[in-house]
């Protein structure tokens, strides 16, 4: 089942997350994006400790589409260095996985 992945990215505003989710779905680069938030992120940036509210996008797609998804996110994303991390989907509801397959 490692043919499928979940990509995550965070955005500073809900509207940015929606823009990314809609663009990926319209271009059939994702079957689904769930938007969660706000969440609180704590990280180091340019030598300083930063704490910000963000929106988390969980994007379901095929592994072979990763680079296209990454490029699309980078075109839209307001951050200079956006988090874009993919994890393999190793198990899942067969009907749901088949649905992902049919949508991307």
Structural features, described:
There is one protein chain. The protein has a single domain (4-103), classed as Alpha-Beta Plaits (2-Layer Sandwich). It has three helices and four strands; from the N terminus they run βαββαβα. By secondary structure, the protein is α+β, with helices and mostly antiparallel strands. α1 (14-26) packs across α2. It has a four-stranded antiparallel sheet. It has helices spanning 14-26, 66-76, 94-103; strands at 4-11, 32-45, 48-62, 85-88.
What are the salient characteristics of this protein?
104 residues, Alpha-Beta Plaits, alpha+beta, 4 strands, single chain, elongated, 3 helices, 33% helix
Summarize the structure.
This protein has helices at 14-26, 66-76, 94-103, and strands at 4-11, 32-45, 48-62, 85-88.
**Total beta-strand segments:** 4
The percent range for helix content is 25-40%
CATH topology: Alpha-Beta Plaits
SSE pattern:
EHEEHEH
The gross shape turns out to be elongated
SSE topology sketch:
Layout: E1 4-11, H1 14-26, E2 32-45, E3 48-62, H2 66-76, E4 85-88, H3 94-103
Antiparallel strand pairs: 1-3, 1-4, 2-3
Helix pairs in contact: 1-2
